[in-house]
Amino acid sequence: MLAPELIARKRDGGELSTEELDWFLCAFADGEVADFQMSAFLMAVVLRGMSPAELSVMTRTIVESGTRFDPGSGPPAVDKHSTGGVGDKVSLVLAPLLAEAGLRVPMMAGRGLSHTGGTVDKLESIPGFRTDLPIDEFRAIVRETGFAIIAQTPDIAPLDGRLYALRDVSGTVPSIPLIASSIVSKKLAEGIESLVLDVKYGSGAFMSSADDALELARTMVRLATEEGLCASAIVTAMDAPLGRMIGNALELREAVDCLQGGGPDDVRQLTLELGAELLRMSADEAPDSARSRLASILDSGAAVERFALGVARQGGDPRVIEDPDRLRVAPVQHLLTAERDGTVAAVDARALGVAAVELGAGRRRLGEPIDHTVGFELHHGPGDPVAADDPLITVHAASHEAADRILPTVESAIEVTSEAPAALPQLILARVTPEDC
Fold first, then answer.
1. Segments of the chain assigned to CATH 3.90.1170.30
2. Could you tell me which CATH class the domain 329-417 is placed in?
3. In this model, does residue 369 exceed pLDDT 90?
4. What sign does the CA torsion over 69, 70, 71, 76 have?
5. List 104, 167, 187, 380, catalytic entry
6. How many angstroms separate the CA atoms of 58 and 265, rounded?
7. Catalytic residue among 182, 185, 194, 203, which?
8. Residue bearing the bigger pLDDT, 399 or 204
9. N or C: at which end does the chain have fewer Cβ atoms within 10 angstroms?
10. Which helix (H) or strand (E) holds 232?
């Protein structure tokens, strides 16, 4: 087979056979198909899509590129995955919370992708924290603490790791089949029984419209169900950042606050909703009862203790969980204030996500190092009244020059109006189950 011919057929809207697509993907994994050829193929998929048959082949080939993790016997093994947003630190809260509730969470998470942050990058802001664990150690930590969060490994779905990195730097992130195959393949390889998906839409998400997000949710739930998982999805808004912190160490601080029973209302609400959905699927617990039980665990402080135990077990310094002020901070903080009285009408999540990358919180090139300390702290969100000179946002930067470069973007990202907006979007739009697919 010839790679250029297969790329051209997909470019022109054709469909590849099972044998052709499997060969192309395996040849890329073996180095026979070059990065630039795979990038061209990925762009063709963005423009032309994939058939359901192609999507199944791609997902299974990714899973079969490595080994399937076996969590062993014990309580139900579950996981959650977000399609990516700005300020989304829910995984840091949800994993130890579910472990404290009696489930097991063997979570394989990603790094930042385009303008959205990554769970792995946030965890690596903890001194010493290891996300590159061998499979046996991963299994042992899950058995001991109820959860572990690791990065893509050479053993589990390694083909997805290479595809993921290429998508990040080639403008091929926002594609329903590519997102679906990437997420579902990793979750299948984790050996879990139940999966809940947080599918985001809006300016800060890869799916800008609610209709596209619903299509992605239905695609992933159908694909996961066909492959043997109990799966559902929650479709959520991402026009404004989730929570008040954007940036790796900053978001870790906010996650710890949530684990201690505090934190922003939207982060807590979404955490409880996703957790209740997993308890419904895996333990047949009624959603209202599950939400109440999970809220009690957060308020008790037990979840933050579980998180500190997991951090220590993965080589991190648990003292930063007990005292987040031990985390490194950016050397420059620049405060922007409101110019007049009014109401915060909008906060552009995408603009702030892109600005965070410019500060160094994310990557512009493959393998680029990041600065865990930089980012933004929002003092007010959409719907909040403000007076002139009230704080709006603090920029955390490595230098005054870096802060100055992104100030125009930050200033334009926050809209303050004299009249309150008529309505704000609801955080949760819909729940998608296999019956909806």
1. 329-417
2. alpha beta
3. no
4. positive
5. 167
6. 38
7. 182
8. 399
9. N
10. strand 230-237
Q: Which of 111, 186, 280, 372 is catalytic?
A: 186
**Contact residues for 422 (Cβ-Cβ < 8 A; gap 6+):** none
Class of domain 3-49: mainly alpha
Q: What is the pLDDT of residue 395?
A: 98
Residue 95: which pLDDT band, with cuts at 50, 70 and 90? very high
182 noted as active-site residue: yes
Q: Which CATH number fits domain 78-323+429-436: 3.40.1030.10, 3.10.129.10, 3.30.70.660, 3.60.60.10?
A: 3.40.1030.10
- 167 flagged as catalytic: yes
Give me the mean pLDDT over the 236-241 stretch.
95
> Annotated catalytic residue: which of 121, 160, 168, 348?
160
pLDDT of residue 110: 78
Sign of CA pseudo-dihedral 120, 123, 204, 272: positive
Asked about 175 being catalytic, the answer comes back as: no
State yes or no: is 328 an active-site residue: no
Residue 92 near residue 82 (C-beta atoms within 8 A): no
Rounded CA separation 319/325 (Å):
10
Structure confidence at residue 419 as a pLDDT band (50, 70, 90): confident
Rounded CA separation 281/272 (Å): 14
* 365 classed as catalytic: no
pTM of the model: 0.91
Q: With H, G, I as helix, E, B as strand and everything else as coil, classify residue 428.
A: strand
How far apart CA 321 and CA 304 sit, in angstroms, is: 8
Amino acid identity, residue 121? D
pLDDT tens digits for 41-83? 999 999 999 999 999 999 999 999 999 999 888 999 999 999 8
Q: Which of 80, 81, 280, 313 is catalytic?
A: 81
